[in-house]
Amino acid sequence: MVRGGRPDGPPRPPHADVRRLRLAHDAAGEPRPRPLVERLRRGTAAEGVHLRPQPTLPIVESPVRCVALRWSPGGPPGLQARRAADLSEAAMSLQRKAVGSMELGDHLCLFFDNDDERRSIMAAYARDGVRAGQKVLYVSDAVPARDVLDWLIGDEKDAPGPMPADADAKPVDLAEAMDAGHFVVRTAEETFLASGRFDPQESIELMATEIDLALVQGYTGVRVAGEARFSLRRWPGTEQHGDFERMLDEVFMTTDLKAMAICQFDRRWFDAARLEQLESCHMGRVRVDDYYDDGSLRITPIFSPPGVAMTGVIDASTRPAAERVLESIATRTGLLCLDLGGVTDCDADGLRLLTRADRPDRGPNRGLLLRDVPPAIGERLRSAGLVARSGVSIEERPR
């Protein structure tokens, strides 16, 4: 099998990829690409990020020797000097950012208690990165690479068909991307504990190394996705995980990194107080992409229970899009939930579409729940005789 552009076998000597490219630049009389931290040095001194040479880090892929980010204890005021409560309030006030809208420089968190929602977000994140020519590094808690790949690919069978906004998007095969080295999966132990313990500074240096290597290899940037449950395993040094998140966030906020990151936190493992502290170490939260949004109607996936949330107006102009989304998810079995809490108006044809009263093929095992129905729309449903339809449950919002 070929991975990373070469057959499986003994790894190349350290820095082979980077040395080969630099020799080619020298032979052509061209300037060598500047390492990431050389570029960062110019703009970070005033912000309190101090740099110093570091030795090569023991990582799985071919490493590149670089000058890595170095933090000085008790450095100049920055995020670490602010009160945690202030940071948390700032983070809580930020609107969640759709994963498809993420940009280089973003450092976001994902708090989840539903694995389907998490998989939908992470699969889109990985595919978008490969499509954009970015290297994608996924750090799993302890799951092997191929199992992570199978889990992410499983999102394809549950996803609806292409929506108008992404119908022309180039399809991405994550299995091919993994074999080519564009999509890399490592465990937390491989990534963070190569020296025997977790060290926040070494972990940030590792990230700088990864970014340098990817840029030299021709990628436009790096996408990092990390599962944080390893921090609860009481491995040596993992009690410093919160310090790592704070330090990493300040790097993102004070430098122009060609990278983005999503840190994943399972609500079933992290308590509320810990999550509040961790949220303060991020720029905001990431959310699932919308199925559709034209400014008049937004349709967003929901997962507990599965279905969609609608916000805006359902009329002649938006009904075709709503119908397309509902048709795309109509093949799923079990309960389907339509959350109408954000719907401000809905015409008669829209009401029939929502209740699917004109669909005789809903099947005996198909249940439909209209949730958080505004009182005005509930009254229209009753007037149209749609509230007593078999298989349809309606939960109205209290007046």
UniProtKB/TrEMBL annotation:
Coiled-coil regions listed: none
UniProt biased composition (Basic and acidic residues): 14-35
Domain STAS per the UniProt entry, residue ranges: 308-399
Sequence segments annotated as region (Disordered): 1-35
Source superkingdom: Bacteria
Pfam families per UniProt: MEDS, STAS_2
Cited Gene3D superfamilies: STAS domain (3.30.750.24)
InterPro entries: MEDS_domain (IPR025847), MlaB-like_STAS (IPR058548), STAS_dom (IPR002645), STAS_dom_sf (IPR036513)
Protein name per UniProt: STAS domain-containing protein
UniProt organism field: Actinomadura rubrisoli
Lineage: Bacteria, Bacillati, Actinomycetota, Actinomycetes, Streptosporangiales
